[in-house]
Amino acid sequence: ETGVTQTPRHLVMGMTNKKSLKCEQHLGHNAMYWYKQSAKKPLELMFVYSLEERVENNSVPSRFSPECPNSSHLFLHLHTLQPEDSALYLCASSHRTGRNLFFGEGSRLTVL
Amino acid sequence: ELKVEQNPLFLSMQEGKNYTIYCNYSTTSDRLYWYRQDPGKSLESLFVLLSNGAVKQEGRLMASLDTKARLSTLHITAAVHDLSATYFCAVDDSGGGADGLTFGKGTHLIIQP
Q1: Peptide bond into B39 cis (omega under 30)
Q2: Which of A41, A45, A102 is closest, CB to CB, to B100?
Q3: Chain B positions in Cβ-Cβ contact with residue A3 (cut-off 8 Å)
Q4: What is the pLDDT of residues B79-102, one digit of tens each?
Q5: Other C-beta atoms lying within 10 Å of the C-beta of residue A112
Q6: In angstroms, rounded to a whole number, what is the distance separating the alpha carbons of residues A34 and A108?
Q7: pLDDT averaged over consecutive 10-residue blocks of chain A (112 residues)?
Q8: Scanning A53, A66, B64, B109, which has its CA 20 to 30 A from the CA of A18?
Q9: Looking at beta carbons, which residues of chain A come within 8 Å of B45?
Q10: What is the count of residue pairs from A and B with beta carbons less than 8 Å apart?
């Protein structure tokens, strides 16, 4: 496989569920990101990892919990989400932070 | 806080016409990126502009960067239907300590036959 792959592509969950989104990059990049894309809003940067260390957390609610076990994998753990958290969650990677991003196909999340 | 503004946010145009999308940003940056997003798809990198005066062209699209004016443009020449998509510019906040790119709201482009 090449590029950035995300699973699942679609996820429906209730507000009390716990689920995780997974991202894997096969580009040899050192930085990985989670972005949230909601209707009629700019892409929102949620988390940045560089060399497996978190370098930015843009005041994201604690119901979103990232995990980066190595430079190729990134997870977003979800628990007790709200309906307004329904969005497209995009994973991206780059050679280093601040450089051109390569995006995955996204995980479309619906919270009921 | 870095702000990135695109205009227009919505553009409907006819095939064969020329048009320009503008991207203004609020703080010093030497790196600007353009992305394309098709409906239901992810973002695809189009151009990377790394210095003042940089110009990149790919087919009917041409992007330029003026770091002094904090302005980038994406020019479409003789538009064709296949270019219908949402176009985003994004800026690296190289001086502010943030490590992700800040995106504009996107320009939703519809090209009609």
Answers
A1: no
A2: A45
A3: none
A4: 999 999 999 999 987 655 557 889
A5: 10
A6: 13
A7: 89 92 96 91 90 83 95 96 95 90 95 93
A8: A53
A9: 100-102
A10: 55
